Amino acid sequence: xKNVKIGKIWDSLHSSYWFLPTIMAVIAIALAFTMLxxxxxxxxxxxxxxxxxxxxxxxxxxxxLSSVAGSVISVAATAFSITxxxxxxxxxxxxxxxxxNFMQDTGNQLVLGTFISTFIYxxxxxxxxxxxxxxYDSFVPQLAVTVGLLLGxxxxxxxxxxxxxxxxxxxxxxxxxEASKELHQAIDRLFPEKLGRSLPNAKxxxxxxxxxxxxxxxxxxxxxxxxxxxxxxxxxxxxxxxRSLLLQIKSRPGRFVVKGSDLVMVFPxxxxxxxxxxxxxxxxxFGRQRTEQQDVEFPVNQLVDIALRAISPGINDPTTAxxxxxxxxxxxxxxxxxxxxxxxxxDDDNNLRVIAEPFNFAGLTDAAFNxxxxxxxxxxxxxIRMLEAIATIAxxxxxxxxxxxxxxxxxxxxxxxxxxxxxxxxxxxIEQRYQAVLKxx
Length: 441
Fold this sequence. Notes:
Distance between the termini: 42 Å
Organism: Scytonema millei VB511283
Transmembrane segments: 16-36, 68-89, 110-127, 139-163
Largest sheet: 5 strands, mixed
Radius of gyration: 29 Å
Structural class: alpha+beta
Keywords: Membrane, Transmembrane, Transmembrane helix
Protein name: DUF2254 domain-containing protein
Oligomer: single chain
Number of helices: 18
Shape: flat
């Protein structure tokens, strides 16, 4: 339970533009007070011997710190404006769902944090400068001013990096690769090489379900509306095992749940009370948007949305759509080599305790290919690449249901192309790719 909540909190913080800059601002405050204390103690270390420390007067120190503070806050405002423009460009040209990737970009967060931290540091040191250098009570924090100069130089380097970074992250290839990276990470996280265990007696799952389950099971209602971002299945297993229950989950991560709808069916239903209902609801993490934390379909939808926007009449960019199909084929090939866990979860005594919402390879294949096939059926290049992608994925499939799902999509692609493509030579090219798929399958 704790790990799932911590993961959700970290995901929210990592997707914000305030968390990392706030940490860097706190570090800047601590650095300013540390340098000032060293200046008051007169400890400069080897910097004074090497001649690397600021040796000017109070007026010069004020000018330096004022220049650094004024410059970096102006650059910070410009950088923030450029970031907002990049977000708007990504939302309009690709899909609003990739904004989350931009929000998680550590480079932008570091840039904003560096500028803000340098500004705060300069202000804190500037307020301590007294006199003009000749007064008895004058104070020129030479070490602190030197560090301020170094931070100013570092800000220039960060600005150069930001100009390059901002022009890179809005490129279609970069956005597609980031979505593909999330897809592969989600597959590695949710579908490790060996997951779950088989029962020694290998009895059919339907025999483990009580015959009166549908009659005597009682629904636990959702207490809020939103997208299911994560489910703590270990907590549900503990609940079911501790009270000898059988829980059937009626949703899975990525699905939208309406308040008051059935969340979990509990058997036997007479054991359901308010405390149990609250505990089951606490095992579900809801949010305003989908995340890839436990939803492997979300990065697939991102790639599909980019492809659909690319082949729309307003943009007409089939090359970008083909890049998305290539990454989808890589992700599905990766998934085809993994063992998808059973929806039936047993305790250590081989008692069925939790029935999860089933997930299978065919469902993710539908999410990857259906919409692209429907909207791109008249684009010969997109059709051919989809058939080539299916042939690539087929080489990694290891069971008949997965191959049947791929065959079904190949058949639908061929059927739709016969209706939408008028040129006979194009049809022949498509037929050749289709036959290549059948040969692999």
